[in-house]
Amino acid sequence: MTKRDRKSALALNTFLNLISWFSPIILAFIATPIIVNGLGTSNYGLYAIILGFASYSFSLGIGKVGAKFISELRITGETSKINDAVSATFWLSSIIGIAGTAILAASAPYIVSNVLLISEDSRDTAILALYITCGTILATIISQVFQFVLHGLHKFGENLILTNLSGILLNLGNIILVLNGHGIAALLAWSFSVTTFIGLMFFARAKALLPSLRIRLRIPLEMLALVLKYGSSMIFYQVFANVLFIFERAWVMRKFGAEALAFYSIPMLLVTYLHGFVGSFAAVLFPVMNELLIDVGKQIELYHKTTKIVLAVVVFAVVTFICTGRIGLALWLDEEFAANSYSLLVIHSLTFGLISMFTIVWQTSETYRLAGLNVMTTVIWGVIAIPLMIAAAGSFGPEGIAIARLAAVCVSLPMIFYVEKRCFGHVFGKFWVAVVFRVTIAGATAALMQTLILNSFAPGWLVLAATGLGGGVVYAAVLLLAGYLTRDERKILVELFAKRSVTTEIPPSSS
To answer: What pTM was computed for the model?
Structure first.
């Protein structure tokens, strides 16, 4: 293949992978207003709170433990232990999943009646929805074990395909169900079916890539101890984060009702796409960080490069949410949603933008088996946010609850520097000053450009698209002129989209 052919192939792969990444998001973007209109705003709020339990009650990502040990064992040549590591992770996930869903199912009537204060005419629907959700939670937990096997083997392309298939099937099914008059229970039953099917697909791919893979009952005590020790910290920090998320939605539901929760959760849905994108990038990074444990210098270099990329993406996304959110919500849903949700979109975008900046740091902590530091961070969030949410709701409404979470995240920012000190030996103060200054200038310039475009034309989808594109061009140009990304870092960014992977060979920085 000639150099020209390679460039053409890279451009095509980049385009196809961009399409594969954004297609489920685009479909969800189309599906959301259809579901809101089909169910009604109040029923959508009820649907959102039940989905919150499905996504954040016992779905702890324990399967990630398997990715950690697969990466380490491959580098050390101890591949014979991979079965033991995956088996221990599977049984730990299964036990927690079965116990957790049994507790949730038993307490469903109490949660519906006494915690969420759901009206009597909707209680039976909500209880049935929680029962269905229990099955989805268990299927998700077990599926994640085999999903992270693909991560540990660097099969991110296959993981992306199956993840995208899940999103496409879920949203298409939801659209068809709503258009045919079906309600919340049918949507959640479809979610369970899709989750189970994709879980079986993940298992099939893991088995194909590791033909010797067997889920064993007898596991060496040494491996069990390692998985339990490493997994326990991961479980604890995700428990604290999930408790906060569920409490946040439940408190909005309890204080202001299902309709207010719909106004609260839809802008949160938008900003979690940003967090999901960064999380996908971090998932690629995680096995590489583990494979570089023997070379701290390269680890630091990878940490700097990926942090700069994540920061650049996050700042532009937050600026765009703030500048275009009011018009975007009105065009996407309606003026009522825009009036009730825009201020929440601004607060949520700032909050989840900052949370996204923790992602690379958390991966670093887990690489060094210091996930306890992540536990500390999520404890800080809960200890600060929950009392503030309770106090602020009465005076400031749903916005007060959102600000409470933002305040907790801001207070925890020094944990980033503490993790750097623990893992790498020192804080990268000059690095942070330099990159934050540059993205601040670029972000301000992009905001000015987007504001000028929006103020110059009548609102519409084409104007909104031109606003995002114009702001993006200006933002990228300022960063380029400021020398924000070196040639090597731009190469990593291209590979992120083109291959969804980062090579273990990190070229020396030219900065």
So the answer is: 0.75
Identify the residue whose tokens are 């893991």.
206
Residue-by-residue DSSP string for 352-391: HHHHHHHHHHHHHHHHTT-THHHHHHHHHHHHHHHHHHHH
Residue 421 corresponds to which tokens in the numbers above? 């000190």
Asked which of 75-89, 99-113, 352-366 is least confident by mean pLDDT, the reply is 75-89
One-letter amino acid for residue 362 of the chain:
W
Give how far Cα 329 sits from Cα of 20, 104, 335, 446, Å.
Answer: 24, 34, 7, 20
Query: Does residue 275 contact residue 352 with C-beta atoms inside 8 Å?
Result: yes
CB atoms within 10 A of CB 344: 26
Tokens of 497: 């989209």
- Cα separation, 21 vs 416, in Å, equals 28
Q: Are 69 and 226 in contact (CB under 8 A)?
A: yes
Round to the nearest angstrom and report the end-to-end CA distance of the chain: 32
- For residue range 179-208, list pLDDT tens digits in order: 999 999 999 999 999 999 999 999 998 888
What is the distance between the alpha carbons of residues 145 and 143, in angstroms, rounded to a whole number? 5
The answer to whether 377 and 408 are in contact (CB under 8 A) is no
Q: How far is CA 453 from CA 333, 345, 458, 462, 463, in A?
A: 22, 21, 10, 11, 8
- Across the chain, what does the average pLDDT equal? 81
- Closest to 109 (Cα-Cα) out of 96, 93, 94, 125: 125
Produce one character per residue of 292-302: b if its CB has 16 or more CB atoms within 10 Å, e if not: beeeeebbbbb
Q: Are 138 and 195 in contact (CB under 8 A)?
A: no
Count the Cβ atoms, other than its own, within 10 Å of residue 307: 21
Contact indicator for 497, 21 with CB cutoff of 8 Å: yes
- Give the closest residue to 117 by CA, choosing from 255, 226, 25, 211: 255
